[in-house]
Amino acid sequence: MQKGTWTVKAGLARMLKGGVIMDVVTPEQAKIAEEAGACAVMALERVPADIRAAGGVARMADPSIIVAIIEAVSIPMMAKCRIGHFVEAQVLESLGVDFVDESEVLTPADESHHIWKHDFNVPFVCGCRDLGEALRRIAEGAAMIRTKGEAGTGNIVEAVRHMRAVMAGIRRIQGMTTDELVAEAKALGAPLEPVMEVHKTGRLPVVNFAAGGVATPADAALMMQLGAEGVFVGSGIFKASDPEKVARAIVKATTHYHNPEIIAEVSKGLGAAMAGLDIKAIPPEELLAPRGW
Amino acid sequence: MERIGVLALQGAFVEHIALLRRLGVEAFPVRLRQELRKLDGLIIPGGESTTIGWLMQEFRLLEPVRKLAGQGFPIMGTCAGMILLARRVLGLNLEPLGAMDMDVRRNAFGRQVDSFETDLEIPVIGAPPFHAVFIRAPFIERVGDGVEILARLPDGTGIAARQGKMVALAFHPELTNDLRLHSYFLGIVRGDVER
Predict the structure, then answer these.
(1) Which of A90, A192, B127, B135 is the most interior residue, by most CB within 10 Å?
(2) Contacting residues of B for A36, CB less than 8 Å apart
(3) How far does A3 lie from chain B, in Å, by closest CA?
(4) Catalytic: B117?
(5) Chain B contact for A71 (CB, 8 A cutoff)
(6) What residues in B contact A259, CB-CB < 8 Å?
(7) Does A19 lie at the interface with B, CB-CB under 8 angstroms?
(8) For position B195, what pLDDT does the model report?
(9) What does DSSP say about strands A20-24 and A231-233: parallel, antiparallel, or unpaired?
(10) Integer CA distances (angstroms), A201 to A144, A204, A206, A291, B46, in order
(11) pTM above 0.90, yes or no
């Protein structure tokens, strides 16, 4: 009997496919998420919109919040650590979280290196903006990838940019001849092995979700049609005027992402979505997506 | 050619469809109740049982699947699918299908760090052992008279069962390259495998 293997780590990500992972800050929110059909919750001290507003250094959540949320729900529970902060990751693993998100939403602890994730029994999910970044994270041991988008904005534009970049990168590699792959790996800044795998299979070696800006059912379905295998919704649910209704609607739209009649039906009367931010109005030094190397 | 539907509300349904196609049957996703028509068998995949169960309820799939099960229709459930087929589930906030006379415990082995892979002896598929992947898996707490346990862990824990034309597995054959359990289910669909 073997635990913590690559198969069980990447396998949990595969069980999350087609689902919605929701940011929650209290056990009550976690219960609402579970009852609304979330396939997992992400436990945080503050949702990204509030992290953005608060400024300062954003760190791993207080373990007491994480434990309270673990006890509140039966679905998988994720929590965020800072980029490169392997001790925060060790703490999260010891608390029993099911997935660690090495996240650009928190303030990076290391500006050159990410965590060597193969050392852990708990699986990791990491953000990316393009294929090279995705493959570097996978080489370090990420069992799941999410495109970054721009968290806490309620604006889908960056999520679309990143998903399109990843999918275009995959199609490009797929169309290459084998002798072109070494130069491509060099250009991507990614190891050759996962580049060869993408060439052969036409997909990332792990599951890829969309994150960072999903605020409506149509946003979720858009990301699914662009190639996401599921979605993370951060501030979009509990910053909406009727979180329960928005949560249910986004879960249904993610399942029926190819069915505009159902998306129309679930989008009726949802109340105010989160206000949202124009990316161009954010000072460049406050953007979260460029964090990660 | 047999037509097998794979419930595609959430979870690892693509993997099941790919394995079934390798076995030469017609396999396609089922998301709406009208897609349950003209099927020879149904697979309920792994995923989150609360999510799949809630979506089945919202899209009115619980009753038609319950009815099919009652008519002796072939259904195979893996992990979340096993949970949904059970009569009673410990740790589920909604009512399962109740298609098989067994009680199942959710997340029975613990959290994700306790997920594991191991080789299983499964007499109905013969040698060699089946390499089984258990992810936040359930196990069987109790079965009724009509339910046969197909496999156990070395400590005796029941992790695979059959009742009539229904098969429930606590692990994920869809995550491996071993087609034998899908073949076994297709044998039941075709009527080749008798009790």
Answers:
(1) B135
(2) 54
(3) 4
(4) no
(5) no
(6) 31
(7) yes
(8) 52
(9) parallel
(10) 17, 8, 11, 29, 23
(11) yes
Say yes or no for a CB contact (<8 Å) between B136 and A37.
no
Identify the pLDDT of residue B54.
97
Closest residue in chain A to residue B47, using alpha carbons only: A15
With beta carbons under 8 A apart, name residues in chain A contacting B55: 37, 251-252, 255
Contact B54 A35 (CB under 8 A): yes
CA atoms within 13 A on the CB side of A269: 1
Give residue-wise pLDDT tens across range A26-41.
999 999 999 999 999 9
Q: Residue A271 — very low, low, confident or very high, per pLDDT cuts 50/70/90?
A: confident
Q: How many whole angstroms separate alpha carbon B42 and alpha carbon B44?
A: 7
Whether the CB-CB separation of B106 and B83 falls below 8 Å is answered with: yes
- Chain B residues whose CB is inside 8 A of the A12 CB are 112, 115, 135-136
DSSP per-residue codes, chain A: -EES-HHHHHHHHHHHTT-EEEEESSHHHHHHHHHTT-SEEEE-SS-HHHHHHH-S---PPPHHHHHHHHHH-SS-EEEEEETT-HHHHHHHHHHT-SEEEEETTSPPS-SS----GGG-SS-EEEEESSHHHHHHHHHHT-SEEEE---TTS--THHHHHHHHHHHHHHHHHHTS-GGGHHHHHHHHT--HHHHHHHHHHSS-SSEEEE-S---SHHHHHHHHHTT-SSEEESHHHHTSSSHHHHHHHHHHHHHTTT-HHHHHHHTTT--PPP----GGGS-GGG-STT---
Marked catalytic residue, from B141, B172, B182, B194: B172
Point out the catalytic residue in the list A80, A117, A148, A252.
A80
CA distance A287 to chain B (A): 32
Is residue B174 part of the annotated active site? The answer reads: yes
- DSSP letters for B136-176: S--EEEEE-TT-EEEEE-TT--EEEEEETTEEEESS-GGGS
pLDDT digit string, tens, across residues B53-68: 999 999 999 999 999 9
Q: What is the pLDDT of residue A237?
A: 94
CATH class of domain segment(s) B3-190:
alpha beta
Among the listed residues A201, A200, A81, A205, the one whose alpha carbon sits nearest the alpha carbon of residue A131: A205
